[in-house]
Amino acid sequence: MNNEDFFAAWDVRINNSIELTEDECRLADIRGKKKYDEAVKAGKKDKYGFNGNPLAIHCQGERGELAASKFLGIEYEFRCNEYKNGLADLGDDIEVRTKTYDGKMIVRHDDHDNRKYVHVVPVGISDATGCHRKFHIKGWAFGRDCMKREYLGSPDPKRPPCYNIPDELLRPIGELVQHG
Q1: How many distinct structural domains can be found in the chain?
Q2: What is the pLDDT of residues 83-115, one digit of tens each?
Q3: What are the φ/ψ torsions at residue 14 (nearest 5 degrees)?
Q4: Which of 21, 30, 75, 179 has the fewest C-beta atoms under 10 angstroms from its C-beta?
Q5: Cα(37)–Cα(34) distance, rounded to whole angstroms?
Q6: How far is the C-alpha of 136 from the C-alpha of 35, rounded, in Å?
């Protein structure tokens, strides 16, 4: 690693931010569309009452997963329907929660309590797809620490309650960074 690469990596770690390249965005969008197509083919509807653009949400979620994997140094593997198959988003036990705005991380009652949940928030202006290239990795928390009555509520009364995790509960993301 040359000095320029070292300082670029250091800046990313200090600021907890990451930017995807155009090629990475295209890859994530292809994978997001694949997940969306699989859901449509299976006749699935959002079980939590989301009524926005489902394709954009799938693509934004994939971009968030790719951003987290890049930041953490974990291989980005495409896993379609990973939740249904019992697989984590990244590695063996990391779930990525990408918000479309800077709000609290959401964990649901049927999520895994033994996994690590990483909060990823888009930064800046979205591109033509409605998705972002820049992300802030806010931190992480164990599912078991998130699933407490005090965090249960619904920011949208039309949607079922969920655990709304305050930033204060999040642990430093550097604890999950893979070295080597």
Answers
A1: 1
A2: 566 789 999 999 999 986 658 999 999 999 999
A3: -65, -45
A4: 179
A5: 5
A6: 24
Q: Edge to edge, what strands does the sheet with 116-123 contain? A: 17-19, 134-142, 116-123, 94-98
Given pLDDT bands bounded at 50, 70 and 90, which one contains residue 9?
A: very low
Query: What is 118-165 written as a DSSP string?
Result: EEEEEES---TTS--SEEEEEEEEEHHHH--GGGEE-SSTTS--EEEE
- Measured distance CA(103)–CA(84) in Å, rounded: 26
Do 112 and 97 contact (CB within 8 A), yes or no?
no
Which domain does 56 fall in, by range? 3-176
Q: What's the N-to-C CA distance of the chain in angstroms?
A: 12
